[in-house]
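Protocol step 6 of 9: fold each sequence in the batch and record its structure tokens directly after the sequence line. For illustration, a two-sequence batch is reproduced in full.

Sequence one:
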Amino acid sequence: MPQGTFCNTTPIGSEEELKALLGDKGGAQYYEEMKELDVDSDALGALLEKTCQSRIHTWLEICAHCGMCADSCFLYRVNDRDPKQVPAYKIQSTLGELVKKKGKVTNEFMRHCVDVAWSQCTCCNRCGMYCPHGIDMGVMFSYLRGVLNSQGFVPWEMKIGSGMHRVYNAQMDVTTEDWIDTCEWMAEEYEEEWPGLEIPIDKEDADIMYTLNAREPKHYPEDLAEAAILFHLAGENWTVPSVGWEQTSLAMFAGDWAACKMQVESVYKAIERLRPKRVIGTECGHAHRATVIEGPYWAGREDGLPPAPYIHYVEWVAEALRTGKLKIDPEKKIKEPVTLQDSCNYVRNHGLAKATREIMSYIAEDFREMGPKREHNYCCGGGGGFNGIGKYRKERNKALQTKRDQILATGCKLVIAPCHNCWDAIRDLEEEYEIGIRWSFLKPLLIKMVIVPDHLKLPEE
């Protein structure tokens, strides 16, 4: 079968196509069609020839098969140290074979690659820290996902997520009208409690432009309100764009390179239009990676930087606490033992562990590190799209065991997770293993303990 109705090489291009794919519950027809999908070996070979350049060729060739990457991989560890879960084996047996055979592979092989690329690697990049040659398997798996996507071999949920970005410029079906209505609704909902609270839209030349994860206005609008409250308390001159507010990129998880470029360019256009002094992204790891780390290259920016300085939310919180824009009431600090989840995408891949520890020094009396910690911490177990793929739920739930054991070892019942994927994985971890923990973003915790300036307090009745 050259192309299926749902499983094919054509990206989602309209709302109708997106709704049709969503109607295939669980991807039942989609995955049946994938079994019959033809591999265009000539196109695959040409793509590899054009895009698989010297760095990846070198990494594939210099791998010494020493196995030092094995114990760095949490998926290898939770799967009884299966040799097939060693990162070097996983990439050599998939991308390595694709390159060696110049794309002349079977449908069965491509489906095997799908299973490995999306259920045996979260692209957390931890293995690269322990490779004596500096080989980055995470980067290679991201590349492999793009190669597979080009041939229509991508998990159902990932094609949907990528399609959402193409249709709505967001990972969920939040239109511009929905977004603006949510901003107005949240400002109205909280203005009585917080006098003068606003969520300014399209304010030019503000000090801060704030960008979000679409899950917030779609499912957790109070997160937007909490961000607004904290900016309000800190006296920030800020805004959100009416278009270009969505920072995340499920297209990155899907390997849809063209959609990655489309998504990040929508954010950059908002920056260029509104001219903020800097941009702050929400508590999301992959959103930061997509807009700040990878995004400039997708957008073809030669300096490798966004159009304005762009920081993660933890950097703003640390700065606000350090400079006194936000002040913590000592009596309201977290008294119980509390631990912190380090997001792979902004801690390991962007070095922000210092900022998160600075925050903990202000808000917690009994902060306990996970072991290992900082850039050595393990993935939450659900990154890289793993959380959202129903076909691999059993494998994902097993992957959560490493984080479960890390949390249990701290003795903490409260876990702070300033990242959406981490937050979701830890929530699901508790649902699956019932270890009696709670989890939270930073925003709601901060609001409970920040000292409200006198001029922002409610009038006494």
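Sequence two, same batch, same settings:
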Amino acid sequence: MAILDRYLHPQMTFERIIPMVLWPISIMMIFQRSVILAVNGDRTDDFRPVYQAALQFLNGQPVYAENLDTVDPHYLYPPSGTLLMAPMAVIDPERSRWIFIVLSVVALVASAFLLAKLFGFSARSWVVPVILFFFFSTETVSHTLIFTNFNSFVLLGMLAFMLLMMRRRDLWAGVPIGLVVAVKPVLIPLLLLPLLNRQWRVLITAIGIPLILNIVAWPLIADPGSFVTRTVPYLGEARDYYNSSIAGNGAYFGVADWLVLLLRIAFVAMAIFGLWFLYRYYRRTDELLWLATSSGILLATQFLVGALGQGYYSMLLFPLLMTVFLPGSTMRNWPAWLGVYGCMTFDAYYSEEWIAFGRMLEYNKVTWGWSLLMIAMFCSLLFRYLDMRRDGVTSLSGDAGGGAADPALTDRSRDGGDGGDGVDAVATVEK
């Protein structure tokens, strides 16, 4: 029987089982989201105004003259973005949109491989199909394809920037984020990270590329001044539709202005503390954890506190979520993942039985998700700091010299995240 057992019960490792299960499922999800849902489209069409602006640019017509008082998607890219998007209008809108969907899927798949590589997993690892399965099960990726917008390329540029920055390819690291900012300035807050990490040369290309593209595009556009006088002021307004920021959510539900302001100040304060704590205790000891978590805090704060925060922006938080594999991650607690569910779920909460209640849940889930994620990260870091203060170990031995990495903080939380073992380890090193 012992001899027969190896034939009757062949053994398979965990690393083989996970890909075997998730690769076929992930491939079919990619097919369904792109070929079926994305090609079908929806009443919201982010591609149409971009294609129309590109067509008007190529024909020498005004680009920024649309009526901004409607609730339809508007063209909001700067002149540099118009220049980069112009090739889309060389062919007819339907085929152009299909090509854009294909390129978006390629960008998302490439992002999955880059994310795995950033965190030290090979392209053949079981982690890649897990990432792809998670990507295409979310609202953020699904609606990016269905609405056909630029977010897939934003994620790809962000991950390329982070990977090159970690490898100290500073000038090259500025190229992908510079190209993204030239089209969609949503990643501008991340330029703080190379500044804090003393990688000044990243900023040369990150700022230089959009600057040069705008200089080139400015005389080629029929109405560049309208971008400054009409579009930029509109970008600063907190509209009350398709807006999950605190200000947009408050405007829709009629929340008092003083409470909206108080909430915005509170989340900025949480972000400042989180960025300070990560910079002080993790930048030199666990650079990847510092970079990925700080980027998540900066972007989540921008989504909440800025004038416009849309649910599909949440895909830019994928590197933050991936830190759950790292000791010391702020994602190793259930409230953080409840927040992730809120801002990334593809579930709809409209109810025919409880109409008002379902509507409230549906329209608030993204805002609550971002908020809970920020609060969970803030509390995780705050409790660590309070424990360290209690035990008198708030100073790093490498502070004076500015170079030595303290192994205590990278050894933290190997038993699951936010327990006291990490503090005890720090205390042992300090003694």
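Proceed to step 7 once all outputs are recorded. Observation for sequence two: The CA atoms of residues 284 and 318 lie 23 Å apart.
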